[in-house]
Design a protein that fits this description.
This protein is an alpha/beta fold and about 300 residues long. It contains eleven helices and ten strands. The strands form two sheets. Strands 1, 2, 5, 6, 7, 8, 9 and 10 form an eight-stranded mixed sheet that branches. It has a two-stranded antiparallel sheet with strand order 3-4. Helix 1 runs antiparallel to helix 3 and helix 6 packs across helix 8. The longest helix has 30 residues.
Length: about 300
């Protein structure tokens, strides 16, 4: 059983899309399981349907207004480096309206509902392919995995949206009496879950460099401090997920092929830039092509 696992990573998901396009269209890999976290969750449904061009069109045209109904920050470009500044008016307005978060992401929810139509959902549900998204249940302090086979159309769209909600910058969702947020808060790279569901060979796309190449810029305001803190925590979670995944794979005779980003794509994955994301998609495709043409240099769990 072959699985495609895509990690979280915000706007860097465009790179994952390019890698997945090569694996599906050029390598002709047929996956039985697609499982994603956060931005990975946005990709998996279209990839399972082999609608690569459709999801590419979405990823290479998305911007801040496509995601945020209330954007909590302003993007500042200084010396060619993009940073985020506080959007005081939107934050105050959000709090007056009773929100628990700095921003809201209802535009992303609508984008998901518009891009995953019910006919596509039914086609996937009737197939033998399983599509799974990762969410964090903050109330019960656990990670949950939502399979398309266990959901109605509306539920699956909502779980996909919840998987991407990077709180406290995006919407905190209350569902079934619990508060839910971005799946990456608990599982950035759900390799272990893929193996639990029967995967024996896994292509894992990691939206981070294999070796740390990053020295973050000093925090300029409370928001940049928060994003630096969250990025630090998510990097640690990602590393732990990979180590656990390798351990579980070695005990279940499973093979993992890792695709890391070769360079640091961005220091703030909440910034959605059409030009950069188009470039990342292309570079992901070319990276996967180059990697596979060098025979088999991908890391395999032993």
């Amino acid at each position: 059983m072959r699985a495609l696992v895509i990690s979280g990573g915000g706007s860097k998901g465009a790179f994952a899309g390019g890698v997945a396009q090569y694996l599906i269209e050029q390598k002709k890999h047929n996956y039985d399981l697609f499982i994603g976290t956060s931005t990975g969750s946005l990709l998996v449904s279209h990839l399972a349907l082999r609608k690569v061009n459709e999801i590419k069109e979405i990823y290479t045209n998305v911007n801040q207004s496509s995601i945020f109904s209330h954007c909590p920050f302003k993007i500042k470009n200084k010396h060619g480096i993009e940073n985020i500044g506080i959007h005081h008016y939107n934050i105050i307005k959000n709090f007056i309206m009773g929100s628990k978060t700095f921003g809201e992401s209802y535009n992303l929810k609508k984008l998901i509902e518009d891009s995953i139509v019910e006919d596509d959902f039914n086609q996937l549900k009737q197939s033998s392919i399983d599509v799974v998204v990762t969410v964090s249940n903050l109330s019960l302090n656990k990670v949950e995995y939502k399979s398309i086979n266990e959901c109605s159309y509306k539920e699956f769209c909502e779980w996909t949206w919840i998987s991407c909600n990077y709180t406290p910058f995006m919407t905190l969702v209350k569902k079934n009496g619990c508060e839910y947020a971005d799946g990456g808060l608990g599982s950035m790279v759900p390799i272990e879950e893929a193996i639990k569901r029967g995967a024996t060979e896994i292509d894992a796309i990691i939206l981070q460099t294999e070796v740390s190449q990053l020295n973050r810029m000093p925090s300029l305001n409370p928001f940049s401090l928060l994003t630096n803190m969250f990025n630090f925590m998510l990097d640690r979670i990602e590393g732990q997920n990979i180590r656990i995944g390798k351990f579980v794979a070695s005990n279940n005779n499973a093979i993992i092929n890792f695709y890391y980003t070769p360079t640091v794509l961005t220091t703030n994955s909440l910034i959605f830039n059409k030009e950069k994301m188009t470039k990342w998609w292309y570079s992901g495709f070319e990276f996967a092509k180059h990697t596979n043409e060098k025979s088999s240099p991908l890391e395999t769990a032993e």
